[in-house]
Amino acid sequence: MPRVLGRLDEPFGDPSIVPTFQLCSFARRHITVALGGDGGDELFAGYDPFKALGVARWYNALVPAWMKGGMRRLIDMIPVSEANMALDFRIKRGMRGASYPPAMWNPAWLGPLEPAELTELFGEPIAVESLYEEAIEAWESSRARHVVDRTLEFYTRFYLQDDILVKADRASMMVSLEVRSPFLDQDVVEFARRIPHEYKYRRGTTKYLLKAALRGVVPDAVLDRRKKGFGIPLTRWLRSWNGDAFARAGAVVGNPGWVAARLREHRAGRRDHRMPLWCLLALEHHGEAYA
């Protein structure tokens, strides 16, 4: 992990760059060009948050604002699992995003920290509208009327460009592997964007059209398996990570006490702080590499 983080030209907040780098390293032993599936989830509604949209709408409509804080505290009492994309992680993330208005659901689901947590970290107010400004503007200016279509736009415009493609490019270039993305062919993208959302996410099935088209070509076990993500056992690894790195990260952000408290909670298994702790590591290693 330090080897990967130290070779990036800017801090990167997605830990899946580590297994992506490992996979590219393995592939490069045999080939110089590879095909990737990037764009499939963003164009055909393949991510778990698409399943949470319906629940989030009902939650916002039926649960009064004064009750949401209590419900989140209750959900936070669910024991922490070390597994990637574990049920407790998905429930807690889903509840977190659903506590905000629809325009903020997606950035709240994906972000490592909420506005209130950032306020604690930096010791000054962080306005929700300022933090999620770009996502809010894109949501409100969208011509799409359905929540699934607007969410597809969010993932294509922000997550794909600023995370997924950056990750694939950096990880592959570290080992001189060329990665091509057939789903991002211009004709494929324009065709996919014209397809009604009902053919992408249908009755709880993500990437419905792709799975239907490939039924009988790709084994059912592959098409029907639960989405796993491309993660690493980060929750477990961070519990034994050298605390010196986090002490340096705490100094970088100007709040060592806040970082130390999150690390203690994480090591004790009381909370899962894998995402903010990873981002702090990425920031610390970047600063160390370019000091």
Task: Describe what this molecule looks like in 3D.
With 291 residues, the chain is mainly α. The protein folds into two domains: 17-231, no CATH class; 234-289, no CATH class. The protein is built from 18 helices and two strands. Strands 1-2 form a two-stranded parallel ribbon. Helix 16 packs antiparallel against helix 17 (256-268). The protein is globular and about 55 Å long. The two termini are 19 Å apart. The model has no long low-confidence stretch (mean pLDDT 91).
Q: Please state the average pLDDT score.
A: 91
Distance between the termini: 19 Å
Helix content percent band = 55-70%
Choose one word for the global shape. globular
H/E element string?
HHEHHHHHHHHHEHHHHHHH
Described by strand count, sense and barrel closure, the largest sheet is: 2 strands, parallel
State the helix count.
18
Question: Helix- and strand-based class?
Answer: mainly alpha
User: How large is the radius of gyration?
Assistant: 20 Å
Order of strands in the sheet with most strands: 1-2
What is the domain tally?
2
Strand content: under 5%
Tell me the number of strands.
2
Which spans have pLDDT < 50 for at least 5 consecutive residues?
none
- Please state the oligomeric state of the protein chains shown: single chain
Helices, strands, pairings?
Elements: H1 2-5, H2 17-28, E1 33-35, H3 40-44, H4 49-62, H5 65-75, H6 87-98, H7 105-110, H8 115-122, H9 128-131, H10 133-141, H11 147-173, E2 178-180, H12 186-194, H13 208-214, H14 220-223, H15 234-239, H16 243-253, H17 256-268, H18 274-289
Parallel strand pairs: 1-2
Helix pairs in contact: 2-11, 4-6, 16-17, 16-18
